[in-house]
Write a structure and sequence with these properties.
The complex is a heterodimer.
Chain A lengths: L5 H12 L4 H13 L1 H10 L2 H6 L11
Chain B lengths: L2 H10 L10 H24 L4 H17 L8 H23 L24 H12 L2 H9 L7 H8 L3 H21 L5
The chains are: A mainly alpha, B mainly alpha.
């Protein structure tokens, strides 16, 4: 992943969901430190994991 | 500037590090005090209220934060996002080690969007399931194959037979679209 360029911006979604592979996390965090747009987007996407948990099936989530 | 770093800087500038043998203990304790409770609540949602497991995950996450403290130069919100990301990975890896789920035999096309049975059904779950079904098939697929199945981007890319970069950009547009719908329906802010 490049620190600049469109692809770096797109990583924010995977990062927000916690599905970005660990080897990419550090690179994205470097990008994040330099990219105000991604910080805003990360904030905007923050609710989504919790909302998606509402529809996670039992085989993937053993919440009682 | 990172919270931990900043805290360290402000809290320890008064002290000569060499005179502070408990420095590491203090940092760990401070991480626990600030993030332990909220993180435990988040993690318990993904460990199925297995408290012991959740506590282990929180401990491991905060240990990693402590080890990475010099590199974690983010403000509070970003540190929190980092902690969530790392804790989620630890849960996923733990689940894999425990062999809880037969991931490999699961066909990728199986529906992983579940609307809970009546007792558990919430308005949010109904709205979110509907919103997901309203997305384009490509968009719905990447959300299903990553988050909803606890897979990373690279794992999903392999299963779907597309490059990881494509998974990431699809996921990006998928989440933007999903959020727009949820916002319109008053479920997301």
């Amino acid at each position: 992943m490049s620190v600049f360029g469109e692809s770096a911006h797109h990583d924010v979604a995977a990062y927000a969901l916690g599905v970005l592979d660990l080897e990419d996390v550090q690179g994205f965090e470097l990008h994040l430190a330099a990219c105000a747009q991604c910080r805003v987007e990360l904030e905007e996407l923050r609710e989504l994991p919790g909302l998606l948990d509402e529809v996670k099936s039992e085989s993937h989530r053993t919440r009682q | 500037m990172c919270l931990v770093r900043r805290q360290l800087d402000t809290r320890f500038e008064r002290l000569d590090p060499d005179d502070e043998p408990d420095r590491d203990d203090r940092l760990i304790r401070e991480l626990y005090e600030e993030f332990g409770g909220p993180l435990l609540r988040q993690v318990r949602q993904t460990t199925g209220n297995d408290l012991q497991w959740a506590e282990d995950v929180v401990q491991e996450t905060l240990l990693r934060a402590w080890r990475n403290a010099p590199k974690l130069t983010w403000e509070r919100g970003l540190l929190w996002a980092w902690l969530l990301t790392v804790s989620r990975r630890i849960v996923i890896d733990g689940r894999r080690r425990r062999g809880v789920r037969p991931r490999e035999v699961e066909p990728p096309e199986a529906d992983s969007i579940a609307v809970p049975d009546t007792a558990d059904r919430t308005l949010a779950s109904i709205v979110v399931a509907e919103a997901l079904r309203g997305l384009s098939p490509d968009h719905r697929e990447v959300i299903e194959q990553t988050y909803l199945r606890d897979r990373t981007v690279n794992e999903a890319a392999e299963i779907l037979g597309i490059p990881p970069g494509t998974v990431k950009s699809r996921l990006y547009y998928a989440l933007r679209a999903l959020r727009a719908v949820l916002k319109e329906r008053g479920v997301a802010n």
